Every structure is written in C-alpha cells, then in structure tokens.
Amino acid sequence: MAPFESMDISEDVLSSSSSSASSPNSLSASEECAVCGNDVVNSSRYGAPGCLGCIVFFRRAIVRNSVFKCLKDGNCNITNEYRCACRYCRLQKCFTVGMRAEAIQRRDLVGPRNPLDIKANLRNLIDIPAGSDTTIDESKENLLQNLVTLQAEQFVKALQYFSDHGLTTHPRRAESHDVNVMLKLCINQASEWGRQLKPFKRLSIESKQSILAEYGFAFLLVDQGFKTAKEAKDGFWLLQNNSFMHSNYFLGVTEEMEIEATTNKKAEYHEKFVSELLHCVAKPFRDLEIDEIECAALKTVLLLTPSFSKRAVYSGQEGYVAAVHTQCMEELMEHSLNKFPDRGEERFGEILLLISSIRCGIKAIYNQTRVSDVFNFREFDSVVKDILLS
Ligand SMILES: [Zn+2]
Ligand SMILES: [Zn+2]
C-alpha cells in the first residue's frame, strides 16, 4: 500500500484554500462594511458592520489617539478600493456610520501585556467560552506574540537536539535520516503548537492524529521555507539542520553515502519535487521577506483550516475555531498595518495567499512519496509512521 493512500488526499486541497481568506464568522452575505462597502463583514462589535480592515483601522485609530489630516476638503469617497487613501475621512466615516469609541473594550486600551507571560496569556485563550465572540477582545491579547515566543523556543530546542545528536552540519546533501528527523521534530512541535489552541486541544487523539498527518507537513514547510528564503542560495531547499535538497538528485553525493541504485525516473521525480517546493514555497517566502509573526499566523490558520476532507474534524466547536481564527486575522492585519502603513491591507492579503502556496507544497510531498519515495518514508520510525500512516 502506498504510504499515503489512506489519507484521502482529495483534489480539493487547492480549491478549498480560497475559503480560508474569509473569516469563518462572517455575517450574512447580504451585509457589507458600512465604512467601505467591502462585502466580507467581520463584525459589528463597534456599532456598525465593518470589514476586518476597517475594524482594525478604527481600533488602532482610537487606541492610539491618532490625528489624521485630509489633504482635500474632508469629503473623500471611502470605498473598498480607495479606503486607504484618506485616513481622516475614513475615520470620520467610521463615526458617521455608527462606530463608537466606547465600544472598544478597556483592555484594548491597556496595550500589550508582558509578552513573556506566555502561560497566563495562553491560559486566557484556552478559557474562552464556546461560541462567544464578545470575549475576543478581552481575553486573548497577543495570541501571535505568544506563539512567536513559542516558535523561538522551538527553534532553540531543535538546534539543541541537533547538536546533542550530531546532526548539526555544514551544508550537505540531506539523507533520509535527516528527512525522518525533521519530520518527527515538526510533528512534535506542530502538536505542541496545537495544544496552545483550544479547538485542537479538545480533539480526540484520533482526530489530532488525523489533523497532524496533514498539518505536520504544513508546519515543516513553513519552517523550512522560512529558513530557505532567508539563508539558501538559489536552487537549494534547506532543512532545519542545514542539510539541503537540490533539484539535481546527485548534487552533493559523496562516496560514503549509501545511495541505493537509482533509476533515472527517481532522479527525475526528485527534480520535479524540489522544484515545486522552491517554486510554491521558497520563492514567495523570499519575495515577500516574510517574518516570524507572519510564519506564526500561517501555522495557526493552517491548523484551523485543514483541507476540505478533514474539516469535519472540528465539527461541534465552530465557535472556538471562529474565535481563534478571528483573533489571528485581526492581529495579522494589525501587524501588516504596522509594518506597511501605506499598504498593510495588501500585505495581509499577500500573506494569506501563501496558504494556498503551502497547500501546493503539501501536495508535492504527497505526490513525491507516492511515486518515488526517495526518502524511504516506509522505513521511518514508528512515531512518524503511527501518525502519518494511521
Ligand atoms: Zn471596510
Ligand atoms: Zn479626505
């Protein structure tokens, strides 16, 4: 049996991704943002239906006491397309349509708490009551910041593990042992990531495994894609311990390596596989110069929006999923606006598009293991196999 046959990799892996760009708790389709007319309404909690961009814009403006100036006559047209053009008029419009500063909860005004207090903050997150969306602002400040702290700890732990096990290396060709270790590492870390988030934490063991079988790869692609984009030369895909894959299957082969007698077909598949990873993941990560917060946001969204065939796993906890997803989207939007004040909303969209790029990469991994199994997934140790092949 092919190792991934039982995983039901449906053809919708790609098409299902488009829905992840919209918030799962969007209101009815007939409503639109009262400020800019965007037809994806995030919530009405500030007094009028607003899209994510306008909600975050309004909160930031109030929390920061921003003073804007109109360069025209204070009567600019605020539309979905041009809403960023005049912040003065956009804020006026927020008030005109009924958004109220008092509706912003006190905790919003207090600002970030100590980001190192990760346990307390995550505990807050884990205690959100089901289906409630009124506590979103209250209880979960700094979700992404907390996850970035966890991510940094995980990077450090991984390096420690490599050094303890003689896996730290100068760049060299990755062998199946490297791939095996990275996969195991990512499944462990992905599972630790999931335990910070209530919707995942509450799943049965079987459901967790089912999610991790797919999500482990997503997690791995984000971490390796991030490292590759930052550190690798063109054409190389880097694993966490600096071993690499190159589209030329034979590049970096040394005499000591036990490369099994390889057909040309296998080398050909390998070339296709690595090229796909580089093209789908490394290139957009590099072009966008994505940062740690954006990686954390991608990992979180990918955990909450598995491919279509697995989505039912979260049934019964849509409220939790929606709450965490919304929190993640808002913080990503806020981050994008901080990083690129003039084109934050565009940046936000570019980051979300990476979700389908990553799904492309996952598909490449599935195809690769199915047709050639260069890295001998069948031989992987039992922890990995239990999760991946269950
Ligand atoms: Zn809007
Ligand atoms: Zn104006």
UniProtKB/TrEMBL annotation:
- Any Pfam family hit: zf-C4
**InterPro entries cross-referenced by the UniProt entry:** HNF4-like_DBD (IPR049636), NHR-like_dom_sf (IPR035500), Nucl_hrmn_rcpt_lig-bd (IPR000536), Nuclear_hrmn_rcpt (IPR001723), Znf_hrmn_rcpt (IPR001628), Znf_NHR/GATA (IPR013088)
Q: Would you tell me the Gene Ontology cellular component terms?
A: nucleus
> Is Transport set as a keyword in this record?
no
Question: Nuclear receptor domain location, by residue?
Answer: 30-106
Q: What is its main location?
A: nucleus
Q: Kindly indicate whether the keyword Transcription belongs to this entry.
A: yes
Q: Which UniProt keywords apply?
A: DNA-binding, Metal-binding, Nucleus, Receptor, Transcription, Transcription regulation, Zinc, Zinc-finger
> Which parts of the sequence belong to the NR LBD domain?
139-390
SUPFAM superfamilies attached to this UniProt entry: Glucocorticoid receptor-like (DNA-binding domain) (SSF57716), Nuclear receptor ligand-binding domain (SSF48508)
Which GO terms of the molecular function aspect are on file? DNA-binding transcription factor activity; RNA polymerase II cis-regulatory region sequence-specific DNA binding; zinc ion binding
Task: List localization entries.
Answer: Nucleus
Q: Which family does it belong to?
A: Belongs to the nuclear hormone receptor family.
From the Swiss-Prot or TrEMBL record, give the protein name.
Answer: Nuclear receptor domain-containing protein
Organism the protein comes from? Caenorhabditis tropicalis
